[in-house]
Design a protein that fits this description.
With 251 residues, the protein is an alpha/beta fold. The protein is 24% helix and 20% strand. It has two domains: 105 residues, Cobalt-precorrin-4 Transmethylase, domain 1 (3-Layer(aba) Sandwich); 116 residues, 2-Layer Sandwich (Methyltransferase, Cobalt-precorrin-4 Transmethylase, Domain 2), CATH 3.30.950. It has a five-stranded parallel β-sheet with strand order 3-2-4-1-5, with helices on both faces.
Length: 251
């Protein structure tokens, strides 16, 4: 049987698709893509005659049935997910169903939107003396989060935080961030459609998140933390008195 390829489409910009992902798209007979989030320009890489399915209009059963039917006819299949499929991609349930059917699959990683957001912000999440941890999470909505992973609980770490799927819940997000330990004046940013042509960035604070959204309610990341500020320590890696495997410290 042919191998099914789960491919990360990247955050939006066509040229942020990986070379491997592009090659897989170009050689696919069938592409099932997440139409609500994947940039449709990526589909121009598919060859003439490639069958396209928009999974935004499909159930899990329909997606699996389409893959099974295509593989049964000897066709190559790409399941195209936004960003990196390992983050909020709902791929585990698909992989388990394929395993049960005896269908082999592989994953092609992609550039996540949280990486694209940092690039757009010209920011570094892991600044010395500020934060060495990045928390990727989401606010509870139609899908709950574990009680130990509420925004309020995670805020206690004071780490750099990036919230997916939470732009429509900014008031409660801000309240939970402050209740958990972030000061209201902590820097924050709303990054709408990072790397897309219509990208928009709103700089604000935790306390002004809700009032700063300017109508943004989806397809945005919420970035929070002092990594967006101006204070940090210099890296020891490049300090003159720091030895590495490649150079000796200078007196």
């Amino acid at each position: 049987m042919n191998t099914v390829h789960f491919v990360g489409a990247g955050p939006g910009a066509v040229d942020l698709l990986t070379l491997r992902g592009k090659s897989l798209l170009e050689n696919a007979d069938v592409v099932i893509y997440a139409g609500s989030l994947v940039n449709p320009e990526l589909l121009t890489y598919t060859r003439q005659g490639c069958v396209l399915y928009n999974s935004a209009t499909m159930t899990l059963d329909e997606v699996i049935h389409s893959i099974e039917a295509a593989v049964g006819m000897g066709k190559s299949v790409v399941r195209l997910h936004t960003g990196d499929p390992s983050l909020y991609g709902a791929i585990r349930e698909q992989m388990d169903r394929l395993t049960a059917l005896g269908i082999d699959y592989e994953l092609c990683p992609g550039v996540s939107s949280f990486s694209a957001a940092a690039a757009s912000l010209k920011a570094e999440y892991t600044l010395p003396g500020v934060s060495q941890t990045v928390i990727l999470t989401r606010a509870p909505g139609k899908t709950p989060v574990p009680e130990s992973e509420t925004i309020r609980a995670l805020a206690a770490h004071q780490a750099s935080m990036v919230l997916f799927l939470s732009a429509a819940l900014l008031e409660s997000v801000a309240n939970d961030l402050v209740s958990g330990g972030y000061a209201p004046e902590t820097p924050a940013a709303i990054v709408y459609k990072a790397s897309w042509k219509d990208e928009k960035i709103v700089h604000c604070t935790v306390g002004t998140l809700a009032e700063s959204a300017d109508g943004i309610r989806k397809t945005a990341l919420i970035c929070v933390g002092d990594f967006l500020g101006n204070e940090y320590a210099l890296s020891r890696l490049y300090a003159p008195d720091f030895s590495t495997g490649y150079r000796e410290a200078k007196e």
